[in-house]
Specification:
Helix content is about 30%, strand content about 25%. It has about 270 residues and is α/β, with parallel strands linked by helices.
């Protein structure tokens, strides 16, 4: 094996197939690396509660990065290592923007997701981030330390809310997108500015006692680019957007969501 000492994995479409299962070939490759003393970790846009089951399946019990680096958790102890919530003043900006444009809002914190009653129609989609959803009054939804928010509605309303948020880019990272599960609906996701999958990978390497050059990462989406840019070697799943593939050192034959990509990356990086 080469000198790579850490493998960091995106979840959806990468470690997890479209059916939300870990492919047997990928699981065997992960176990082989773990047996050889290589650290295996997860770097995901999901919350801790949405990533824990996949981690258990792969016998990962150390530190993982959730919500794109906003929350680092040591799994075996459930101890928070890093926590980057949205500042209260910025939460007020989000609440005002979402309310003004009548968007169904979801507030993500370390324990799960709170949503107002308008969000019930989209609960199955948002559950991807965490199985812990709770409907509460709008005022109560924000009385935590939010790691992120998602708001869903008509495309024009989402675009207008997103425009209001971009004014606060120094404090707030935000991105809008079409919601494929609900044709004709769009969403905007926002979290604290600063953390990313790249900053998370740097911290995970520090905790594992290795350098970024000794890290291998696998992902399939735009939010994986920050860790592609800093890792020693990076693999984009086949079928990933061209912009994502360009940022990776390697592109896999295995396509996103179909399984087998981790096993392919392990063969190519470790031999």
């Amino acid at each position: 094996m080469t000198s790579y000492r850490l493998l960091a994995l995106d979840l959806d479409g990468t470690l997890l197939r479209h059916d939300q299962r870990v492919d047997d070939a990928d699981l065997a490759a992960i176990r082989e690396l773990q047996g050889a003393g290589v650290a295996v970790t997860i770097v995901t846009g999901r919350l801790h509660s949405g990533a824990a089951e996949a981690a258990r399946t792969c016998a990962i019990d150390g530190a993982i990065a959730c919500m794109e680096g906003s929350h680092l958790v040591e799994l075996h102890s459930n101890r928070t290592l890093l926590h980057h919530p949205i500042e209260p003043a910025v939460c007020d900006v989000l609440r005002t923007a979402f309310g003004a444009h009548e968007l169904a809002s979801f507030v993500f914190d370390a324990g799960g997701i709170h949503h107002d009653h308008d969000g019930a129609a989209y609960a199955d989609y948002v559950r991807t981030w965490s199985p812990n959803l709770k409907a509460v009054e709008e005022e109560l939804a924000w009385q935590t330390a939010p790691l992120a928010t998602v708001a869903i509605g008509e495309p024009e309303a989402v675009a207008a809310a997103h425009a209001a948020l971009r004014v606060h880019a120094a404090d707030l990272f935000s991105v809008s997108f079409a919601v494929s599960a609900y044709p004709g609906k769009h969403a905007v996701l926002a979290r604290a500015a600063g953390p990313s999958k790249g900053t998370a990978l740097a911290e995970l390497c520090r905790l594992a006692g290795c350098t970024l050059d000794e890290a291998v990462v696998v992902g399939d989406w735009v939010n994986d680019i920050p860790m592609f840019e800093v890792a020693g070697r990076s693999f984009a799943m086949g079928g990933a957007p061209e912009a994502v593939q360009r940022k990776a050192t390697d592109v896999l034959a295995r396509e996103t969501g179909r399984g087998g990509g981790i096993a392919e990356a392990v063969r190519r990086a470790w031999g």
